[in-house]
Amino acid sequence: MADVPSYLSPTGQEIVFLLLGVVAVGAALLVVTTRQLVHAALWLVVCLGALAGGYLVLTAEFVAWVQVLIYVGAVVVLLLFGLMLTRAPIGRAADLDSRNRPVAAVVATATAVVLVTVVIDGFRTAYAPLEPGGGSAREIGSSVFRTWVLPFEVLSVLLLAALVGAIVLSRTDIRGRR
Question: Where would I find the H helices in the chain?
Protein backbone atom coordinates (compact mmCIF):
# COMPACT_ATOMS: atom_id res chain seq x y z
CA MET A 1 0.00 0.00 0.00
CA ALA A 2 1.17 3.53 -0.73
CA ASP A 3 2.71 5.67 1.95
CA VAL A 4 -0.41 7.55 3.12
CA PRO A 5 -0.07 9.84 6.15
CA SER A 6 -2.16 8.96 9.18
CA TYR A 7 -4.18 11.20 11.46
CA LEU A 8 -2.10 9.80 14.32
CA SER A 9 0.99 11.69 13.12
CA PRO A 10 -0.28 15.19 12.24
CA THR A 11 1.80 17.75 10.39
CA GLY A 12 2.26 21.33 11.55
CA GLN A 13 -0.45 22.57 9.18
CA GLU A 14 -2.90 20.03 10.54
CA ILE A 15 -2.15 21.02 14.14
CA VAL A 16 -2.68 24.72 13.34
CA PHE A 17 -5.89 23.86 11.49
CA LEU A 18 -7.11 21.84 14.48
CA LEU A 19 -6.31 24.67 16.90
CA LEU A 20 -8.13 27.18 14.71
CA GLY A 21 -11.09 24.81 14.59
CA VAL A 22 -11.14 24.58 18.39
CA VAL A 23 -11.04 28.39 18.64
CA ALA A 24 -13.87 28.69 16.07
CA VAL A 25 -16.07 26.15 17.87
CA GLY A 26 -15.37 27.70 21.28
CA ALA A 27 -16.16 31.19 20.02
CA ALA A 28 -19.32 29.92 18.28
CA LEU A 29 -20.48 28.38 21.56
CA LEU A 30 -19.88 31.68 23.31
CA VAL A 31 -21.85 33.50 20.58
CA VAL A 32 -24.96 31.49 21.29
CA THR A 33 -24.59 31.21 25.06
CA THR A 34 -23.66 34.74 26.09
CA ARG A 35 -26.49 36.92 27.35
CA GLN A 36 -25.12 40.22 26.05
CA LEU A 37 -25.64 41.00 22.37
CA VAL A 38 -22.52 43.13 21.96
CA HIS A 39 -20.37 40.37 23.47
CA ALA A 40 -22.04 37.88 21.12
CA ALA A 41 -21.11 40.08 18.15
CA LEU A 42 -17.51 40.29 19.33
CA TRP A 43 -17.29 36.51 19.79
CA LEU A 44 -18.68 36.22 16.26
CA VAL A 45 -15.70 38.27 15.07
CA VAL A 46 -13.37 35.79 16.79
CA CYS A 47 -15.21 32.82 15.27
CA LEU A 48 -15.19 34.24 11.74
CA GLY A 49 -11.53 35.23 12.12
CA ALA A 50 -10.63 31.67 13.09
CA LEU A 51 -12.49 30.42 10.01
CA ALA A 52 -10.49 32.83 7.87
CA GLY A 53 -7.30 31.46 9.45
CA GLY A 54 -8.48 27.95 8.56
CA TYR A 55 -8.91 29.04 4.94
CA LEU A 56 -5.36 30.41 4.98
CA VAL A 57 -4.03 27.09 6.28
CA LEU A 58 -5.89 25.34 3.46
CA THR A 59 -4.12 27.68 0.97
CA ALA A 60 -7.35 29.44 -0.03
CA GLU A 61 -6.09 32.99 0.38
CA PHE A 62 -8.80 34.63 -1.70
CA VAL A 63 -11.58 32.96 0.28
CA ALA A 64 -9.86 33.94 3.54
CA TRP A 65 -9.73 37.61 2.59
CA VAL A 66 -13.32 37.55 1.37
CA GLN A 67 -14.26 36.05 4.75
CA VAL A 68 -12.47 38.87 6.57
CA LEU A 69 -13.74 41.69 4.37
CA ILE A 70 -17.35 40.60 3.91
CA TYR A 71 -18.25 38.75 7.08
CA VAL A 72 -15.98 40.25 9.72
CA GLY A 73 -15.79 43.69 8.18
CA ALA A 74 -19.32 44.20 6.94
CA VAL A 75 -21.78 41.81 8.56
CA VAL A 76 -20.60 42.24 12.14
CA VAL A 77 -20.35 46.02 11.76
CA LEU A 78 -23.87 46.04 10.31
CA LEU A 79 -25.07 43.96 13.27
CA LEU A 80 -23.47 46.36 15.76
CA PHE A 81 -24.88 49.42 13.99
CA GLY A 82 -28.30 47.77 13.96
CA LEU A 83 -28.05 47.24 17.71
CA MET A 84 -27.04 50.83 18.30
CA LEU A 85 -29.57 52.44 15.96
CA THR A 86 -32.59 50.41 17.07
CA ARG A 87 -31.91 51.01 20.74
CA ALA A 88 -32.18 47.28 21.36
CA PRO A 89 -31.53 46.16 24.93
CA ILE A 90 -27.77 45.66 25.12
CA GLY A 91 -27.50 44.23 28.61
CA ARG A 92 -29.06 41.15 30.12
CA ALA A 93 -32.80 40.76 29.63
CA ALA A 94 -34.77 38.19 31.60
CA ASP A 95 -37.65 38.15 29.12
CA LEU A 96 -35.38 36.77 26.37
CA ASP A 97 -34.61 33.56 28.28
CA SER A 98 -36.97 30.67 27.47
CA ARG A 99 -35.63 28.45 30.27
CA ASN A 100 -35.05 25.58 27.84
CA ARG A 101 -31.29 25.51 28.23
CA PRO A 102 -31.03 21.91 29.53
CA VAL A 103 -33.14 20.51 26.70
CA ALA A 104 -31.25 22.61 24.14
CA ALA A 105 -27.91 21.43 25.56
CA VAL A 106 -28.95 17.77 25.33
CA VAL A 107 -30.19 18.17 21.75
CA ALA A 108 -27.06 20.09 20.73
CA THR A 109 -24.76 17.50 22.31
CA ALA A 110 -26.60 14.61 20.66
CA THR A 111 -26.48 16.35 17.29
CA ALA A 112 -22.77 17.07 17.68
CA VAL A 113 -22.03 13.45 18.62
CA VAL A 114 -23.93 12.15 15.58
CA LEU A 115 -22.24 14.62 13.21
CA VAL A 116 -18.74 13.95 14.55
CA THR A 117 -19.30 10.18 14.39
CA VAL A 118 -20.53 10.37 10.79
CA VAL A 119 -17.67 12.62 9.69
CA ILE A 120 -14.99 10.51 11.39
CA ASP A 121 -16.44 7.29 10.00
CA GLY A 122 -16.87 8.72 6.50
CA PHE A 123 -13.42 10.27 6.22
CA ARG A 124 -11.36 7.82 8.26
CA THR A 125 -9.08 6.84 5.36
CA ALA A 126 -9.42 9.99 3.25
CA TYR A 127 -6.36 12.16 2.89
CA ALA A 128 -5.86 15.12 0.56
CA PRO A 129 -2.44 16.75 0.46
CA LEU A 130 -2.41 20.53 0.55
CA GLU A 131 -1.28 22.14 -2.67
CA PRO A 132 -0.63 25.90 -2.75
CA GLY A 133 -2.80 28.05 -4.98
CA GLY A 134 -6.03 26.08 -4.81
CA GLY A 135 -8.00 29.10 -3.60
CA SER A 136 -6.69 31.75 -5.95
CA ALA A 137 -8.97 34.38 -7.43
CA ARG A 138 -8.37 33.12 -10.99
CA GLU A 139 -9.54 29.57 -10.24
CA ILE A 140 -12.55 30.68 -8.20
CA GLY A 141 -13.56 33.28 -10.79
CA SER A 142 -13.38 30.84 -13.67
CA SER A 143 -15.37 28.28 -11.67
CA VAL A 144 -18.07 30.80 -10.75
CA PHE A 145 -18.43 32.27 -14.23
CA ARG A 146 -18.17 29.02 -16.19
CA THR A 147 -19.79 26.20 -14.23
CA TRP A 148 -21.78 27.98 -11.52
CA VAL A 149 -23.09 31.06 -13.35
CA LEU A 150 -26.77 30.01 -13.30
CA PRO A 151 -26.93 29.11 -9.57
CA PHE A 152 -24.97 32.32 -8.83
CA GLU A 153 -27.56 34.44 -10.68
CA VAL A 154 -30.50 32.58 -9.09
CA LEU A 155 -28.99 33.25 -5.66
CA SER A 156 -28.56 36.95 -6.46
CA VAL A 157 -32.24 37.23 -7.51
CA LEU A 158 -33.28 35.40 -4.32
CA LEU A 159 -31.23 37.80 -2.18
CA LEU A 160 -32.71 40.78 -4.04
CA ALA A 161 -36.23 39.46 -3.36
CA ALA A 162 -35.38 39.04 0.34
CA LEU A 163 -34.05 42.62 0.46
CA VAL A 164 -37.19 44.03 -1.18
CA GLY A 165 -39.36 41.97 1.19
CA ALA A 166 -37.47 43.29 4.21
CA ILE A 167 -37.93 46.87 3.02
CA VAL A 168 -41.66 46.35 2.46
CA LEU A 169 -42.12 44.73 5.87
CA SER A 170 -40.23 47.48 7.67
CA ARG A 171 -42.28 50.35 6.20
CA THR A 172 -44.96 51.66 8.50
CA ASP A 173 -46.66 54.11 6.12
CA ILE A 174 -48.22 51.45 3.86
CA ARG A 175 -49.98 49.29 6.45
CA GLY A 176 -53.76 49.20 6.26
CA ARG A 177 -54.67 52.72 5.16
CA ARG A 178 -58.26 53.70 5.97
Answer: 12-33, 37-57, 61-66, 76-85, 101-122, 137-146, 149-170
